[in-house]
Amino acid sequence: MKLMLYIILIIANIFLMISCGTKNDVVRNFTGANGEIKLLTIHPGHFHAALVQKTMYDQISPEVYVYAPLGPDVEDHLNRIEDFNSRKENPTNWREVVYTGEDFLEKMLKDKKGNVLVTSGNNEKKIIYIKAAIDAGINVLADKPMCINENGFNLLKQAFVAAEKNGVLLYDIMTERSEITTILQKELSLIPDVFGELTEGTPENPAIVKESVHHFFKYVAGNPVKRPAWFFDVTQEGEGIVDVTTHLIDLVQWECFPEQIINYETEIQIINTKHWPTYLSLSQFKQVTHLPQFPEYLSPLLQDDILPVYCNGEIVYKIKGFHAKVSVVWNYQAPEGAKDTHYSVMRGSNANLVILQGKEQNYKPELYVETVNQKNTMTLEHNLKKAVHTLQKTYPGIGFIKCKEKWHITIPNELRVGHEAHFSQVTERYLNYLVDGKLPDWEIPNMIAKYYITTTALKMAKNVK
Known about the structure:
CATH superfamily of the largest domain: Dihydrodipicolinate Reductase, domain 2
CATH architecture of the largest domain: 2-Layer Sandwich
């Protein structure tokens, strides 16, 4: 109730500012000129906000306006930016102009110093910031997830309507589309002589499976990541079923139905969902947050000084008649040498396309082609050779080798840029969309479909007894 009242007050303030003739002297019609993008950052509480600025962009002014409450979240963000500015190799030269008053959101909307807002942090509040910025005529590049519950989903739909009305672009940061094994999985699935056609699958054996394993304690930009305490409060961070699954659902749509509009009301059917906790001890909480104890708002959730965090989830659903499954698991820390991992399979009538990232792959994602009919092995290998030869024009250096009953797609290191570099690749795409003045026709309905799946699945999982 308090959250909804806060939203109403924020929206009322926006209309008041607009009616009073709030000055907006920043560029709205983009040409690609140097420095015409003026970045705003609001309440950065997740390291993804900084990763957008790990590199410089000609189109973006080096002066960035940060609005946030005073505290460790904004301090950590500014320290990351300073690390980028002071590194020996390819240092950046961002100049952060910071406002830390309690009225940071209202101040940002009144000042209107920028034309593109980057938001990555507390996911409960994120949709409020998104909606307020869009209503004020500010473009938004948002980290996932843009919403974490049914109320947030309804606000997100309103934000897209307002974006169309105000001529601004709302876009979420889908970094996994830039991962080379995923790109090649998609490319091979579009070659009928190799993949055939996507099978329909069943709930027990879906045609598309995407599984992701993440870790609370890990290293980012060479340093151990420090998580805010609210990261472990699912009312603020969101459950795993509405967080990381946004990437997985996005990949299902992007790979299997490229440039196709998905109508969530008629083409999505959620079959079953489940969620479960990872248990966090006080010592683990201390290590990853740098705090001496659990905050008061987590106390009601504790079970003998152990915090259950509902960060794991699974969704089985049908999309355009095909069965898909996405799941996410969070462990505390990866095994020695391991990282966050991704497993993916697309089942075709000729072959399955499988991404593995286990110990056998040295915890690097690797792509394999598996035949579904041993009698056609020689034909499939011949067709794969032709396909890879064609793809080499776009992805130089790729190849394949026979590996038992499957083929391993070999990928040169030059094409493996890494997760952190993917943020700049997404940002570059967004900058191009700003110059175009629009997103591709399928992006907005498919974002809406994606968040419908996550928020509906969460509601279903909570209702399962």
